[in-house]
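Lesson 9: reading folded outputs for more than one chain in a single document. The general rule is that every protein is listed as its sequence immediately followed by its structure tokens, and records are never interleaved. Here is the first one.
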Amino acid sequence: MNQSELERHIQKKTLSNNFVFFGESSFLIDLYTKKVSTIEDASMLSLYHDEYDFNSAKAHLSQASLFGDRNVLILKSEKKIDKKQVDALIDLCEKNADNILVYAYYGSDYTSYKNAFAKKSTMSVRFFHPKDAEALNIVMQIAHEKKVKIDRHSLSHLLQLQNGDVALACNEIEKFSIYDKEITIKDIDNLVFGLAEISVEALIRKILNKKDFTQDLRNLLDHGEDEIRILTGITSYITQLYMFNIYMRINGAPNALAILGYAPPSFVVEEKVAQAHKLKPATYAKLHELLLESELKMKSKDTDTEAILLSTLIRIQKLL
């Protein structure tokens, strides 16, 4: 089943009561998980990542409701759940129409799910990254729900600024909801940190790979990027790598959803994992100390922030 078919079932109110969602778009998986599981007065249980326990999940769907409420079970994971266990949970939904199961799988090895539950009532849906027109419609809908005053042209500009990333654009809509006025393109340019963020990541990659980064830095500064924001962007990136490093040392394997709170594309995760492995805990400590000291210097009065930034980046490469 594809997204359009699922949407038609939602509109016609002909949905099943058990779903398996997977694919390239974590944003759409989250969006439709919420759509099909938002039931008033339901008895809700959400199990995320490593919280999953089959006995707890089974017990939730097996319990009788004293007040006629529905039992809703949401499973979110980057690791595949044993198919026999998923089948058992689906059986509990087929036996009881008041049960609802949503298994949201964020892993990249999802191709086997296309026909895995074909003989059951399960609605298995693969979500692709939304194309331009669909992405714009999604952001428009979110803006309407959040009561944000913004026209289609401005929303298109926001999406372009965020390189077509619907999740990032919707996050900005959430921020706009505090403003009691119409959001214009000028407001977006002033309030949104967009494509420059991607450029900062390109700069960071060159720094971490000990390559010449001076032209990238010059381009960012020439386009008006603030030195302190570049530095804090680097601090945030290094912190993410450290979180990956810690998680892998404790659990043996990475789980981007647990670490970051969202599931980025697999190639992004793979890159961060590779980078995180290269540095030792002691190096992370030295890098954070350097970055925080430099930020403090930059925020002092009468300082040459550009010189401090350049010096800091050179010192980072020496620590690697």
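And here is the second record, again sequence then tokens.
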Amino acid sequence: MQKLIVDKKFNNKKVSEFLFSKFNGLTKNTLYKAFRKKDIRINNVKISEDMAVHLNDVITIYIVDDLLYKNIEIPKVYEDDNILIVDKPSDIEVVGSDSVTSIFEKEYSFISPCHRLDRNTTGLLLFAKNKETLNILLDKFRNKEIEKHYLAKIYNAYENLSNTNVNFKQYNTPPLIKEGAPQTLTAYLFKDNKKSLVYISDTPKKGYVKIVTSFTVLEKHKKENYYLLDVELHTGKTHQIRAHLAHIGLPIIGDGKYGINEINKKFGCKTQQLRSYKLKFNFITDAGILNYLNGKEVQLK
């Protein structure tokens, strides 16, 4: 049995919409079976169909947990007494309810993420297993003593788009893409919390913060017109890689927010092709109990 209270976001919405947002394993079949059996109550009144709910309504459901939550397996890549590095799957947040963190909180007395990945970005995620470690790693990230590398599958928006409806004016002139040679991009980012979007400017503006992103071309597929990039974050801002690359005309394939929907459909990708695949500890100052990690590199195959 689960009991929930309707918040403002779901006022006047259907109870099904509210419940699907709360339980990642709930299916339509399970929900409508519960309606037929009158296993769902609104303010302690049994209901037999999908109805609207209102702010502060109390929803009680009599469905076993196994049918409410997905059994998400998150592989551990590296672990010692102080840190845990996991391979985060897509479609799950780093923090919050039903998140990577909440899953591991059931196993560890203390566990805290040291950085973030977008919901649909996969790959290496670093956790601290004690407060001392957390403080050290947060400091190392601030001082850029930990390298974060991503694999990004991007499309060149300036080539082979003659049969699309893409508006070229949204893109700036792309940099000269040199295979094998690292390139560093500098711009300015503004985060719009209301729209859950970020905006990129080539020049400083009020409210914008400086961002630095480097990339190296690992593979070029001329026929399909896409590249595989190694991207290194020098500043870790919300949606930085996705927005920065799209800003210069190299959108990540599968990105529904900053990419090109027509291209995403062409490649059959519903989520951004972005993966955190390498972490490297490059301590230049004392790391206390974590000095043993200096020089260590963790990489996904």
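What the second record shows: The CA atoms of residues 84 and 127 lie 5 Å apart.
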